[in-house]
Amino acid sequence: MKKKKLFIWLFILILIGGGIYLGRNHLPIPFIENTSKSGEEVGFTQEVDLDSVIEVSRGSIKKTVSTSGYIKPENEVYLSFATTGTAGGTVENILVKAGDMVEKGQELVKLEDKQERLNYLSAKNEYELAKISGSSTQIEERRLTMEVALDKYESKTLKAPFSGKIVDIFVEEGDFIEGSHDVVYLIDDSLYEVEVSISEVDCLRVEVGQEVEIELDILKEQIFSGKVVEVAEYARTESGIVTVPVTLRMDEVSPYFKPGFSATAEIIVDSVEDALIVPVTAVSEGNRGSMVLKAEDNKGVPVPVKTGISDGFYREIIEGLQEGDQIVVNNYQMNSSTDSQRGAFGGGSPMLRMR
Length: 355
Hints:
Helix content: 10-25%
Mean pLDDT: 81
Strand content: 35-45%
Order of helices and strands: HEEEEEEEHHEEEEEEEEEEEEEEEHE
CATH topology of the largest domain: conserved putative lor/sdh protein from methanococcus maripaludis s2 fold
Radius of gyration: 39 Å
C-alpha cells in the first residue's frame, strides 16, 4: 500500500514538472522592458521581420464614395403623336430606321394625312382670294383658318425635336395607332449621365462639381471621368434603406455606350497630391495617438505621427516622418503583445529589435 501511495505521488510530481516545462516553451515571447538610469520605463524589445520594412514615399490619395447605377443619355425621349396634337391614325411612311443619325426637325414617321392636306389647301386658296377682294377682317379670318389647317396637316408627321440617334421604332407601316402610342425612341448620344443613389450618411460629403471616376462593367479597366451635376433635394426609402439620388455627367463618350449599361462610380470627396503616404497597416492607434514603427540602427522605434486622409489602403502622413524613412509595413507585433492591457503604445517609447 505504501509503495502504491509513493508511486501516485511520484506520478503527480512528474505531471506538475512536465506542465511547467511545457508552459515555459509555449508562452509567447515576452516584452523585455528597458529602464533608464532615472528609473523611468522607456520601452521594450521584440524581434520583427526585416522583410516587413519599407521606405516612406510620396504619392496621391483619393478619398471616395462608392456607388453604382446605369448610364443613360442626358437627353432622351420616347416620341408619340400626342406631342404633335393629333389623336392618331394609320402609319403611312416610316422614314428612318434604328441606328440612323437624324437632325433636329427631320421627318421620322408620317400618318395618312389626305383629309388634313385637303383642308389645308382649301383654306390656303380661300386666304389667297380674300387677299384680292376681301376686307381686312376677312383676310385675317382666312389667314387664321389656313394656319389652323396647316397645324393639323403637319401634326400627322412626327419630327425629331433634337439631333441624335434613333434607338428604336415601335410601329410598322399600316399600323393604326392612338396618339399616345410610343413611336420612336430618340437619344442625344453626345452626352451620357449615370443615375446613382448614395446613403444618407455619404450624401453629406457629396457636392455638385466633385470629380468622379466611372467604370462600365462591359468596358473593364477603362476609367471615364465625370462630375457630380445634381444632388437631389429629397431622399427615398426602399426596404428600410434611405438613399439620395445623385446625377453624374460623363466627360467623354465611347461609341460602345448603350443606354442601360451598368456602371460603378467613385465620387472623389477629398484628395491630396504629392503627399507622404504609408500603408494603413503601418499606422497604429493607441492611447497616445497615431504611431508608426521607424527603423533606426536595426531597431524599430515607435514614432508619433499626424495623419491625414485615407483611401482604405494608404494613409497620408502630415507630420512625424520624412521621405525615405524606413518603417515597418505591418506593426501587428506591437498590437499582439502579451502586455495587451497597456495598449499598442500605452507606456513609454517602445523599441523593437530588428532581425
